[in-house]
Amino acid sequence: MIEPDAILGVLGGGQLGRMFCVAARTMGYRVWVLDPDPHSPAGALADRHLQAGYAEADALREMREHCAAVTTEFENVPAETLEYFEGRIPVRPSSRSVAIARDRIREKTFIREQGLATAPFFVIDSAADLQAACAGLRLPAILKTARLGYDGKGQCVVGSHAEAVAGFQALGATACILEERIDLAREISVVVARGSAGGEVATYPVGQNVHVNGILDTTRVPANITGQVAAQATQMAVRLADAMDYCGVLTVEIFHSTGGQLLINEMAPRPHNSGHYTLDATLTSQFEQQVRMLCGLPPGSTRLLSAVVMVNILGDLWEQGTPAWNRLLRHAEAKLHLYGKRTPRPGRKMGHYNCLAEDIGQAIELADRIRQELAKPA
Ligand SMILES: Nc1ncnc2c1ncn2[C@@H]1O[C@H](COP(=O)(O)OP(=O)(O)O)[C@@H](O)[C@H]1O
Ligand SMILES: [Mg+2]
Question: How many independent structural domains does the chain possess?
Fold first, then answer.
């Protein structure tokens, strides 16, 4: 067990790293963040911000010498960097798990190998592969780059073979998947915490997610699903974590089709935007859980304390200047989280707020009311 006062390393300095810093420092750990951005949201709250690239030898050497363990908040850290740390200190999640999760082809292939369902898809290595893929899938389908996609970036909807060829070029003629578009009843996600030796597992209540333009907009908990569907989704997520012998926090995004099927969409080898509700509505947040898994502590309770709606705050809200936060802060059951980012841009995640209430109906009402108030001109 790694005890408080030890130094924990985080690779990546965005908002997820920032919330990890808060959780770890609250518990008495020290945190070093590696991120080249001088204005890194996590760097600002770390004990030490190593302002260097993810492959810079001096910074990596120093971290390897001083950190008791290392975690990531960003799956695109070079594999060699994770392997370099693995030679000496615990890295959680492992380089292998990160390698599976960051590549849609490996990820979906791995999921299917476990006997778990995904949307039908074809691997597209070159434009020549599009012919068979378009013939084999119901169109329109979705073309997605295998790597580096997030918030709906790196994907496009294609309605014909010609559009698929054009889309493939527009995405940079890089490895892709062509995936059937599912008729969604809803989207849900499950955050799982899994320990190392023995793999003790804790799962969070299922969240129901609404995306707008490919970006998460809201998560509500409890989800509007039966206990049976929730149990099945949770079981699928745990199976995936077990299959990878995963250590750390893993988030699994699942489609619930209008036909009642549960299909795994993707996984994130880390805490996730759809788990931000846990910051205020469960006994242990997903970030404290990340600290616990990294340090070999048992998982904290994931018990839901309140119905909750999480609403993302995007840079678009700054269009008329700084939002009037007083309109949110005057609500006693709304909790504001801002990430300390300097430059608001459309689509950029700047923060979120959690609305807590006695029941989910009231939480939804509060979230809607605050959204309208924030959108009104000053
Ligand atoms: N096959 C699909 N069928 C229906 N909707 C989809 C499909 N793939 C993606 N989407 C929609 O786009 C969103 C973002 O896609 P996703 O594959 O999760 O990429 P990202 O890595 O950007 O999160 C999903 O949450 C969902 O709303
Ligand atoms: Mg996604």
Answer: 3
